[in-house]
Amino acid sequence: MRTGIIGGRLGYRLLGWLGERTRHKDWCSGANYRDCSKLEALFGPGIWSRLRGKVVIDLGCGIGAEAIEAAQHGAKTVIGIDIRPKVLEAARAAAAAAGVSDRCVFSTHTDERADVILSIDALEHYDDPEQALVMMRRLVADDGLVLIAFGPPWFHPLGGHLFSVFPWAHLIFTEAALIRWRSDFKSDGATRFSEVEGGLNGMTVSRAHRLIEKSVFTIESFEPVPIKRVRRIARWLPREFFTSIVRCALIPAGARQAGREFVGSAAPGRRVITAGSMRNR
Ligand SMILES: C[S@@+](CC[C@H](N)C(=O)[O-])C[C@H]1O[C@@H](n2cnc3c(N)ncnc32)[C@H](O)[C@@H]1O
Predict the structure, then answer these.
(1) How far is the C-alpha of 11 from the C-alpha of 174, rounded, in Å?
(2) Whole-angstrom Cα distance, residue 37 to residue 69?
(3) How far is ligand 1, taken at its centre, from the CA of residue 61, in Å?
(4) 197 Cα nearest atom in ligand 1
(5) What is the pTM of this model?
(6) Could you list the residue range(s) of the whole structural domain that residue 144 is in?
(7) pLDDT (tens digit, 9 = 90+) per residue, 49-81?
């Protein structure tokens, strides 16, 4: 992944000075969706009927908020998968507190097949996103549905997550300087972005589309949603730099699914790209 030019002692010292506030931010806290349902904000109110009575896998579930919400809205079973035992513990405790432990389990892996797979803010974190798509196909029923939403993508002003100490800082400073700054307050021993706890793979809008396009899924919809503030003029701005989230709906290639419609809601400035149309852009 491409990183910047300011490195060495200068980069490290500047980051120490500028990054004081960012170092305390928890990127997995779901803070941006405090007053609303993240699933509903991402996929529209139709999401609940999509999940009702279904076996759902949430791949990269974090502390389980969306898995629990899916169970509360009538999903038959929800299996939250994550690579971090610490967040799985927190998710189990939250499910117990919400009274859905009987329908909501959390683990580092599953072999169960699901009707719906959710991947929320996780595609940019998987160490091998291509393999994650292969795994999703193995785990989803032949007539099932995969809903992916991720963001911010890598070229978004805050696409470096923790490393975006100011807009696009992760593209201005070198990876070495950013990692050195981070090692002052994180002790997981990461030496590269890809090694930080929870992973960070530099996913861009185009890379996500390429990966999905050559996967074993058919794209029902692929929607780069522009940053709210620039929504009116988004069509004139470079999409990679001004997309806040990407969301898409995928079905297993070859599966015939009648009457399916995308569960997102259209809003000004949003572009929904359906199968095949992106190649001509
Ligand atoms: C930004 S958090 C998102 C959590 C939750 N989905 C949400 O929207 O709040 C990304 C999660 O993906 C998990 N993750 C990263 N790589 C993974 C993998 N290969 N398999 C499963 N989970 C993974 C991380 O541990 C982290 O908890």
Answers:
(1) 8
(2) 8
(3) 6
(4) 25
(5) 0.89
(6) 34-160+188-255+267-275
(7) 999 999 999 999 999 999 999 999 999 999 999
